[in-house]
Amino acid sequence: AFLKLLEMRSDSLLFRSGSFTTRLQVRQLINHRFVSVNGVVTTSPSFECKIGDKLEVFGNNSLRKGGLYSP
Questions:
Q1: Distance between CA atoms of 25 and 63, rounded to whole angstroms?
Q2: CA 11 to CA 70: how far, in whole Å?
Q3: Average pLDDT by consecutive 10-residue portion of the chain (71 residues)?
């Protein structure tokens, strides 16, 4: 149960998506307001997501794998 709780954190989910190389990068994006959960910007890397929540990363940033992200 504890591991499941850790894996549902917003930073874990974004890191496991494979779009970022380190958890530190993901945490920085969240802290700098580049991530929203269900349309609401979050600044907490420990935000607990639920199944069905929509995580969105916005802005042109170079932290994604492969250089600049262009939607």
A1: 7
A2: 21
A3: 85 91 92 92 94 87 51 38
| CA end-to-end span of the chain | 36
Residues 6+ apart with CB under 8 A from 66: none
* 44 HSE (CA, 13 A, CB side): 8
Sign of the C-alpha dihedral, residues 46, 47, 51, 52? Answer: negative
Structure tokens at 57: 């990363």
> pTM higher than 0.90, yes or no?
no
CA distance 71 to 58: 9
Token couple for 13: 């989910």
Tokens encoding 41: 């910007």
β-strand partners of 35: 57
